Amino acid sequence: MNGTLTGDDVGKTVVDAAGKELGIVAKVDGNRAAVDPNPSVAEHVFASLGIEGEDEEDYVVTESMLESVDDEIVLQGTL
């Protein structure tokens, strides 16, 4: 099962299939999300307000990597 990414996913926690927290969604662009693995307090606040941002430490997650999208985003497999 794959999920669909939307701008509403900014700020959601991203976890692997085992439940290990991998970061938060910093930005959604089409079918990809930039995930911040070490968000600062300010980045958490911006994300909770729906303000997107992307920086050099973020990594990309695509919809084909998703297991589900709900209150958190679950990736297929573990890292």
Explain briefly what this protein structure is.
The protein is 10% helix and 35% strand. The chain is mainly beta and 79 residues long.
Describe the structure.
This is PRC-barrel domain-containing protein. It comes from Natronorubrum thiooxidans. The chain is mainly beta. It has a single domain, classed as SH3 type barrels, CATH 2.30.30. 10% of the residues lie in helices and 35% in strands. It contains 1 helix and 6 strands. It has a 6-stranded mixed beta sheet with strand order 4-3-2-1-6-5, covered by helices on one side. It is globular, with a radius of gyration of 11 Å. It starts with 12 loop residues before the first strand and ends with a strand. The model has no long low-confidence stretch (mean pLDDT 87).
Keywords:
single chain, 79 residues, mainly beta, SH3 type barrels, six-stranded mixed sheet, 6 strands
Describe the SSE topology.
Layout: E1 13-15, E2 21-29, E3 32-36, H1 41-48, E4 59-62, E5 66-69, E6 73-75
Parallel strand pairs: 1-6
Antiparallel strand pairs: 1-2, 2-3, 3-4, 5-6
Protein name: PRC-barrel domain-containing protein
Organism: Natronorubrum thiooxidans
- CATH T-level topology: SH3 type barrels
Instruction: Indicate the proportion of strand residues.
Output: 35-45%
Largest sheet: 6 strands, mixed
Poorly predicted runs: none
The whole-number mean of residue pLDDT values reads 87
Give the total of beta strands: 6
**Rg over alpha carbons:** 11 Å
Total number of domains: 1
Major sheet strand order: 4-3-2-1-6-5
Name of the CATH architecture: Roll
Share of residues in helices: 10-25%
State the name of the first-level CATH class. Mainly Beta
Query: What's the tally of helices?
Result: 1
N→C terminal distance = 18 Å
Tell me the structural class: mainly beta
Q: What overall geometry do the principal axes of the alpha carbons give?
A: globular
Order of helices and strands: EEEHEEE
